[in-house]
Amino acid sequence: MKYLITTALFLLAACGHVNPYGVDAGNPAAFMPAGTSIAAPRQYVFLCYERPEMCRLPAGEATRMLQELHRITRAKFTVKDDGVIDTWGRGLEGDCDDFAYAMKEGATNLFSSFNAAFGVATAWVETGQYHMVMTAETTDGTIVCDIRQTQCYPWGALPYKWDQRQVGVKWTKIGEIQ
Is the pLDDT of residue 111 over 70? Predict the structure, then answer.
């Protein structure tokens, strides 16, 4: 009898009539809240220290593949002014932020197991213009992929005054800590 009830619930759930987890996806309360930033659990810090490949994109071959993705994306990308209203992530055309998000999407697709390693950062460049780049956290450090550059570079190698960066879904101010 228990098997029959379990099977019936499974079939109803498969048909969309019952959610076996009791969660209504149309209800905002069904989504786990983002919460506030806190320090990482000590065990996570130890894990990342002892096995950095679990938390960051392994350098070496992955960095070479990122360089190739950067080259291909730059070749396909059409630089175009957003106009009066700046929008982000318009695919393979637009300005620096659109390029950063095109790179992030490509990198996430290429390295789906490491999607948390990719983000974006903003900075003032040497001309005084505000600018956005894609970042990749690797075992060798943070790599920056920038439409203004012919290849990706370690973040400290660029003459930028860094302002903010995306870490997961949160943004952090980094200008004061450079």
Answer: yes
